[in-house]
Known about the structure:
- There is one protein chain.
- By secondary structure, this protein is mostly beta strands.
- The chain has 6 domains: 2-39 and 639-659; 43-124, Immunoglobulin-like; 136-220, Sandwich (Immunoglobulin-like); 230-320, Immunoglobulins (Immunoglobulin-like, Sandwich), CATH 2.60.40; 334-408, Immunoglobulin-like (Sandwich); 441-629.
- The protein is 12% helix and 43% strand.
- The strands form 12 sheets. A 7-stranded antiparallel sheet has the order 35-38-39-45-41-42-47, with no helix packed on it.
- Helix 1 runs antiparallel to helix 5.
- The radius of gyration is 33 Å and the shape is globular.
- The N and C termini lie close together (7 Å).
Amino acid sequence: xxxKGKLYSIALASAILIFAFSALxxxxxxxxxxxxxxxxxxxxxxxxxxxxxxxxxLVVLFTDTGTGGVPTSWLWDFGDGNHSKHAMNATHTFTxxxxxxxxxxxxxxxGNSSITRPGYITVTTGSPAEKPVADFYSPEAEKVLNGDTxxxxxxxxxxxxxxxxxGSPTSWEWDFGDGNxxxxxxxxxxxxxxxxxxxxxxxxxxAGSDTISKYGYVLxxxxxxxPSPAYFSSDVxxxxxxxxxxxxxxxxxxxxxxxxxxEWDFGDGVTQTYMVDNNSSAMPYATHTxxxxxxxxxxxxxxxxxxxxxxxxxxYITVKDPNIADLEIPIANFRSNVTWGYAPLAVQFSDLSQxxxxxxWDFDNDGKPDLSSQNPIYVYTAPGTYFVNLTINNAYGFSxxxxxxxxxxxxxxxxxxxxxxxxxxxxxxxxxGGGSSPEPAKNVEVKELAQAFITNGKPVKFDxxxxxxxxxxxxxxxxxxFGKTTTIAEQLKGKxxxxxxxxxxxxxxxxxxxxxxxxxxxxxxxxxxxxxxKVDKSWIKDKKIDPASITLNKYSEKKxxxxxxxxxxxxxxxxxFTAETPESSSFVITGKTKSPGDENKTGEKPELETRATxxxxxxxxxxxxGLKTNPEENKSTPGFEIIYGLAGLFAxxxxxxxxx
Length: 660
């Protein structure tokens, strides 16, 4: 009996030690783990602006170009007593002449970084605007024109262009001669094919505009010989297919018998080369027949005995379809310098339409025209996904193009004294919805597209049949008709750039879903939205994940929330789940590691069940039902270990009573 009493005392002392260790040590370890999860890289501050000088009032768009970790706040100091908080890209109006220092401080959980650019903005006294005079130069192109062709300009080599205009222009339109353009003041460009390119620059301000054209300014692909522009013309430049065109080297009459050879590239995959003939000169003419409708760029390349000459005329020949009436049909097209960013977001739009006699821009898809200028700047002040609609008209009809601009909410609220810049004077309005992806391409591991027709009153299903990502399909019931629509599933390399951090549970995959090209995934347009995703069983085994804990997390209002999920099936490799998903968004699949007691249970398979997090029901009552935020619930709680300790003490007590 005494020996049993001693054993009882020893067991009781051991239980007390286990209880103390659980209550004191384990919470510390858990807190340390959470701290590691929340660590991020500190940001590195950097910025640029669209202009650095001009007359007052001078509107300047500042753009964050920093590196390192993703900032959660931005503080701009414009040097004139005004600041802008929490704006990734800030627009500010300098109202008084002077020289201003501009500073930017960026911050996240890992630290902060600041940069100051002394005398960065120069504002001169406002005077009656003078019409600008366009001029520009490129150091790389000038070097070749001056005879320094070693090594010349290679294919896809980036060269620089600098505005040298006078008269304080406020906008710039570059045409690089190969079908590409830019609205930057000092752009860079890379030519992908040997040729001689004519570069045009149009500058504008309130007093008017001016254009300069430099013929054959960029001579690309000629090395070790003095280059010069070539010149040619043709008997026709447009007509119906099949179209026969005769080309002529215009310099032949001025300098007969001068080329050793001429090479013509007709732009449709056919080239012709004429070498020296009996008259000691290559043939100056070339005849070619275009069989198919289209626009064709033509290049003449020759050896003029003193060096090489070359010229490219972009879209020089237009071949029309004989079966289509010859009408100047309007074709709407435009682009923007950015497609997403943080509010307030200034966006430069460039109209690339054909045959436009008039135009109307609708920046928020409310059906009301906002501006009619060709290349406007519009500032979005509120977060949301905006549908930009350009409609052009002429005597033969109208044409429209719609795209989306995604404006993200700043990481924290704050006031801003910065001004808003817009061409033609309009207000900025907001709207919500889904659209094309704002995720940076460098973050995307793999993506898959699925297409389906969206018709009012019918169920819609987007099947991702290539199995490229963890997303199997997306379904919903349509409340409006949108026609043929594309949905994108993006599986990410790690954390999305659109979220501040990952959930605290074990992460399986991060992914985004974007439905359509603008605002389809809203409660006004769809209902009963569901996503099916799959989880590899090998991950569950390797990470010792409890299958019943696997869930889908959605990022909303700067917090992660868990969606009600249903384990719908399995095969040899995967478990398949479905979840009702409010809107397109960033998602993360997570699971929890099994407790030691659960690991001893073998041979059990997860039941097919519907689970709701935080005690909510699995059914939904609208798009946001089933979504509960859980910023704290996944941290380890000391009370859990205390309960285990007390249970151990109670078991020892019962054992002692039985033995006595």
